[in-house]
Amino acid sequence: MFKRLRAAIDARYQRWLERRIPRQRQVTLDQRRIFIFPGPRGLLFVVVLLLLFIGGINYANNQVLLLCFLLASLLNTSILHTYRNLSGLRFEAARAYGGFAGEAVDFEIVLSGASGRAHRGLLLRWGDAAEIRVDVEAGRTQVLRFSLPVSRRGRFVPPRIALRSFYPLGLVRAWSYVALDMEALVYPRPVADELPPSGDGDETAQAPEGRRPRGIDEFDGLARYVPGDAQTRIEWRVYARTDELYTKHFTEPGHSRRWLDFSAWPQADTEGRLSRLAYWAIELERREQPYGLRIPGARLEPAQGDDHHQQVLAALALYGAPP
Amino acid sequence: MSQVELAGYQVSRRSVPWMMAAVVAAMLPHVAHLPPWLLAICALCVGWRWGVHRGRLSYPPMRLQQLFAVLLIGAIALHYRTLAGHQAGTAALVAMFALKLLEMYKERDAYVVILIGYFVAATAFLFFFTLWMAAWILLVALLLTAALVAINASLDAPRLEPIKRSAMLFAQSVPLAILLFVVMPRLGPLWSIGLQPGDAQTGVSDEMSPGSIGSLVESDKLAFRVDFDGAAMPVTSRMYWRGLTLSSFDGRTWRPGRDLERYPALTWFPRGRQPEWLQRQEAARAQAGTLREWRYTVTLEPTQRPWLFALAVPYSDERAVGHVYDQSLRAPGPVKTLTRYRVISVEGMPRDPELPAWLRDDNLQLPDDAAPRARQWALQERAELPSDEAYAARVLQWFAEDGFSYTLSPPVLGAQPVDQFLFDTRRGFCEHYAGAFVLLMRAAGIPARVVAGYQGGEVNPVGGAVQVRQYDAHAWAEIWLYGRGWVQYDPTAVVAPDRITRGSRVALADQSRALQPGLLGDTPLGGSLRALGDAFDYLNHGWNQWVLGFDEQAQRGFLQRWLGGVSAWRIGMLVLGTGVAVVALLALWMFRDVLFRKTDPVTREYQRFCAGWAARGHARRADEGPYDYLARLSAAEPRRATELQRFIVIYVQLSYAGRAADRDALRKLRAARLQAC
């Protein structure tokens, strides 16, 4: 009963926040977005003020009263300062890096200040990442990278960034919840398994003319270095002798071009298949062996390289997701 | 990323020096009244914490600290015989403050230390009432606040950033503080504060025996200050500041008579509710319209005693000033804080032209066995003279001519002190002369009483206030003469005329340290130092007048003047209206850069350019500089590449030129922007 009430209130609050501080690529904090109230230490300070006031009137001591009023006014001034410390602070979404389910995805954001002003003592908490303290000096930008743990495959929309600041006196708390319009892809959690030969049998036959695909398993010979070849394969002994760069080449016996097929593991469920496909995509990429992907709704021709790898992983991450 | 760190909860190391400075500064004023052993413990705690900060010592174990705290509170309770009251309370507070330093591991502890610090700073105001102490406490508050800033400031903030920020915060807080001070209603005390053991009573006491006033003369502390309305004031030799009259004599000590018992409650002044005796006096005052009136305000330092000093014959229309039958003024309780009261004194007004029988009895009373030789002398002399006046003159003549001298260190007197003084030692201070004179009058059948108070004062050339110090304490006599009422006689004046005309500072200059004319004496430097001292006194007096003296009555008068009437509604509106206005003005000033922002025209053109392309789906990314953006836009729209490049080049030239763009350049930029969008 209470749980449902709480959930309802929470949902309503989130909707209200969504209206008041909508998701944007770039958020500048202003009066709509900053909340402010004395923090726990501020309340303690108010208690001290009350005691001073009582002491002042009881001893009819105007000096004590004057100090009390000065400190009360100081609290008021510090509300303005704490507010000003957040106002004008700009959050910009910079980059999102994909990651595997069960691990973390990284987001990069850029903090910059209103012109000519510093923003100090900013306490940022994003999702489950540890709270950090940042100072943005006047005229500087601060690039921050957060790792947010993720558990489920698919598009990950990060929660709001909780920002607090007690600067300058620690008595007043100003806070805001910043929602940046960012998302990261969460790839399936890789699961190791045997890769059964795909039924097509076209791997070696379709090899490009002339050269055999470069593999790692069996030494094939030396070829002149082409930019992009892995440095680990450079034959330094030859270089020492001839002053020319050669790379060692290998071939893999049998399957040198592979299709990663959704139907390869009939015994596994959907997520299990995606996990195995992800594992083999990483593995084959590591072996520098071209691979293609065939899953319902997506087909990527065999290829190799970072872009291809990302495309394959993205296709796995978004399997079954609405476009 | 040096400016990023995990949010920590340890005390920031940078805040510790600020905190230590603030702690020491907050404790310093209390050095004056705390017992030395407690001061030593405080110093030990501060030193230990500093050692911890420098890495030389470690925190004492928690158990030891708790034990120490209990022992310390116990010791304070033993020392003061109580823990209540502001003396013992302050001692306990300072002790806990010092101990808490050794328990300051976390940020939270640091906040507690600082908050107690504000409190310790405020307690100094219970003991000191000068502008200098107020300035010192302001410094303490600045340091404490700097420590707060240092806790919250970044690690690579400039070294003096905390104190600068603290000073700025305070400067911005002053207007609202003054407003609150002026308009916040002064409530009455929530509970009454009795005289605590350990409250040192100062000034004239309610009994006088040989030596009691002489001890006061050793002090040059201010007793009170008087501001006369207008420039006119009596000459200082005629300023007899009456405090109380002493009529009851036991052979050695003089004590107050029955005036207060007879008319018990102090009689306050609301017109129409005055007792008959005060109405009579008022009537006499109205008749004696030609007499000289002095109007003045007295600012009395705390004495812990109820007497209020004034020239004869005093009236006050303040509610907190009582009128006693013996023509003196009285506060409702011990004067615990600096107190201001207004007085009108009517000079030369007849007092008690008809003496009631009870008062006559009081002022003729002598113990049977007191001073037999003096009484015999009195009876003989009076019998030979025609009138009471002539007899009084004879006594004064005796004092003046028969080898009597004025000294601060008279010989110790035995069982018959008055006889011994009059016939053997003949060396004495004002209380000897006043006491002996009154006794000689009573012995001859003339009602007489001793008056205790102050005589004289120094006029401060800056501001013109009269400053009366403890060394001006004095005792003299009043005798009742038929047809004239009470008449003032000062036997000391005939023995040591200098005491009255030039003050005890001159009369006793070679006898007392407090009465020395200062180290530099009459040298030019000494003179300018004195002038500086006068200026300081004047400033301090302003503090007394405008801050300490701003009580309920002053506030009422002030608000009456500005509001044309005092009611809860008006005060509420004033507090609300002016409060909002002051805060709004402060906010306007603080946010002037946001509210009245002027973007420079070059940047504005660039912003428009970016907005234009953003509308077509090519928003500039946060981390993209102008050239990166240009490259991306050119790739997306190769046909516009030339125009795009033209605009960006002009923009970069202008914005990094280091000087403001002139009108031609701006026109060019604008044209390029229009083509490029």
Strand content of chain B: 5-15%
Number of domains of chain A: 3
Low-confidence stretches of chain A: 201-216
Distance between the amino and carboxyl termini of chain A: 37 Å
Class by alpha and beta content of chain A: alpha+beta
Helix tally of chain B equals 26
> What share of residues of chain B is helical?
40-55%
Nearest-angstrom radius of gyration of chain B?
37 Å
Average pLDDT of chain A works out at 82
Strand order of the largest sheet of chain B: 8-11-6-2-16-15
Unreliable stretches of chain B (pLDDT < 50, length at least 5) are 194-198, 513-519
- Order of helical and strand elements of chain A: HEEHHEEEEEEEEEEEHEEHEEH
**Mean pLDDT across every amino acid position of chain B:** 82
Amino- and carboxy-terminal Cα gap of chain B: 38 Å
Molecular shape of chain B: elongated
Strand line-up across the major sheet of chain A:
2-11-10-6-7
Helix content of chain A: 25-40%
